[in-house]
């Protein structure tokens, strides 16, 4: 087991809730034991690699030819560089939830938190946001991250038909309502909260709002419970189907939070393990699918280059 790094212990405010999480009633599901053992081995190797990189061990970090050569996300999303970067940037806004939420959304929709360094925070003042908009327009391309930039077709027929207008004028207009909705919740699941938000937001950005709600759970665990039902993305569904093709993937993830992976080196908070949540298991499902595809000679080949960590 690995204690949470000191630079992350105070960055997030959910850790103590995840050593004794509020779990739903156990779901009795029969899963493919052979696949589950393979998943356990995969996440053990990936966590061990993170630990070796963290303490600047010399490569090779593993004898597994796939994990050593190709890029995989961390088992705990809180360890991902961009997530650390976003929460570090917005740390001073945590006591103003609507303003914090607005700028988390700004980061996640641009897929590039470095934009904040270049043009500043959004707020709820139209004149201020007009200045941010003008700075954003002038930035050289590519200004948005490539990972999850939303297609322009979704907003093309709206009153905010460009990404820049949508971010600088629509987000501030609608976020106050969404902030109030979230603040009225008491440890609601991501799946349930997501449906309420999309109804208010009017645009079907389920992926982005899932990411944002995870961020909310890291800072405001009283609103969001990451151990409830969680939306399973298309990248994770194949893994869930391998475990049991007849069961709803969301229920598979709920089942997995009670599963104790073999010899898995959990992160720990005050020497207590951070229990893997449905959010963690959704991500694990996605990464295991990538791993399985690469072993079979298929899938996108994103090669590992060099380790770098956002320094706090």
Share of helix, binned: 40-55%
**Cα Rg:** 20 Å
Count of helical regions:
13
Total tally of structural domains: 2
Could you report the average pLDDT, rounded to the nearest whole number?
92
Distance between the termini: 23 Å
H and E string: EHHHHHHHHEHHEHHEEH
Number of strand elements:
5
Unreliable sequence segments: 306-312
- Envelope shape: globular
Strand order of the largest sheet: 1-4-5
Structural class: mainly alpha
Main sheet record: 3 strands, mixed
Portion in beta strands: under 5%
What is the strand and helix layout of this fold?
Elements: E1 2-3, H1 6-9, H2 33-54, H3 65-69, H4 81-89, H5 97-110, H6 114-119, H7 126-138, H8 163-183, E2 188-189, H9 190-201, H10 206-219, E3 224-225, H11 237-243, H12 249-256, E4 267-269, E5 272-273, H13 278-295
Parallel strand pairs: 1-4, 2-3
Antiparallel strand pairs: 4-5
Helix pairs in contact: 5-8, 5-10, 7-8, 8-9, 9-10, 11-13, 12-13
In short:
The protein is mostly helical and 312 residues long.
Could you list some keywords that capture this structure?
312 residues; 2 domains; 5 strands; 3-stranded mixed β-sheet; mainly alpha; single chain; 4% strand
Q: If you had to describe this structure to a student in words, what would you say it looks like?
A:
With 312 residues, this protein is mainly alpha-helical. Helix content is 49%, strand content 4%. The strands form two sheets. It has a three-stranded mixed sheet with strand order 1-4-5, with no helix packed on it. Helix 5 crosses helix 8 (163-183) and helix 11 (237-243) packs across helix 13. Residues 306-312 have low confidence and may be disordered.
